[in-house]
């Protein structure tokens, strides 16, 4: 299993567009069979700091997300927006869960 957390801060005026772009990714993922992936995005109280966490059962499951056109568009637009804090990626290790993920 691979767990990835990405945190970044957008400019305040870009936050709504970023949320819309994330919504498109989530909508696409919800239409696909993705039993080896759990992906979510959260917004901090400041309204512009985002945290994405993805759980992948395998490398192939990660490739599904990375190859998704809406995800590529989300990444490109975020980069072009000039975020206040660039995305910081961390690899995490699972030590416990209240539910079986996979």
* Strand arrangement, major sheet: 2-3-1-4
CATH topology: Alpha-Beta Plaits
What percentage of amino acids are in beta strands?
A: 25-35%
Q: Tell me, what is the CATH class?
A: Alpha Beta
| Main pleated-sheet profile | 4 strands, antiparallel
Would you identify the CATH architecture?
2-Layer Sandwich
Please explain how this structure is put together.
This protein is α+β, with helices and mostly antiparallel strands and 102 residues long. It has a single domain (2-92), classed as Alpha-Beta Plaits (2-Layer Sandwich), CATH 3.30.70.100. The protein has 3 helices and 4 strands, in the order βαββααβ. The protein has helices at residues 15-30, 59-67, 69-80; strands at 2-9, 37-43, 49-56, 85-92. The chain has a 4-stranded antiparallel β-sheet with strand order 2-3-1-4, with helices on one face. A hairpin with a 5-residue loop joins strand 2 and strand 3. The radius of gyration is 14 Å and the shape is globular. The N and C termini lie close together (9 Å). The model has no long low-confidence stretch (mean pLDDT 97).
